[in-house]
Amino acid sequence: MIFDRSWYGRVLVERVEKFASETDWMRAYGEINEFEEQLAESGAIVAKFWLSITPAEQLRRFKARQATVYKRFKITEEDWRNRKKWPAYERAVNDMIERTSTEPAPWNIIASDDKHFARIETLERLCDRIEDAL
């Protein structure tokens, strides 16, 4: 099963956009850890990856999307608005990683300015995680 950050919204977007109270997003860390621990105890291999890019690389990619007709749909005003909140998202991500990287479900932080490197690194770490679990 592959999840795409589905249960991390509370501690990221909902936190930064103030859709959730601090009490709610602080409580979510424990709920996340408990859920992932239950997955691991039931035999799932939990592998979490954070693909990290620099603000400069994000800006380069945004501009490239705007300049490429068939990629313009990938960039919206919401992306630009959220970009202005980089420091708040960075704090939220740091807290998320610190509070939800556990033995049964550790985070893998992947430097992703270079997409080719990031893909290979992700696959290698995933294979290592699977081998360790088997």
What is the secondary structure topology, with strand pairs?
Blueprint: H1 13-16, H2 22-41, E1 48-52, H3 55-67, H4 77-83, H5 86-100, E2 107-111, H6 115-133
Parallel strand pairs: 1-2
Give descriptors for this structure:
two-stranded parallel ribbon; 2 strands; globular
Structural account:
- The chain has 134 residues and is mainly alpha-helical.
- It has a single domain (9-133), classed as Rossmann fold, CATH 3.40.50.300.
- It is built from 6 helices and 2 strands, in the order H-H-E-H-H-H-E-H.
- It has helices at 13-16, 22-41, 55-67, 77-83, 86-100, 115-133, and strands at 48-52, 107-111.
- A two-stranded parallel sheet has the order 1-2.
- The longest helix has 20 residues, at 22-41.
So what's the CATH class? Answer: Alpha Beta
Q: Span between N and C termini?
A: 17 Å
Low-confidence stretches: none
Number of helices: 6
The gist of it:
With 134 residues, the protein is mostly helical. The chain has 6 helices and 2 strands, in the order ααβαααβα. It has a two-stranded parallel sheet with strand order 1-2.
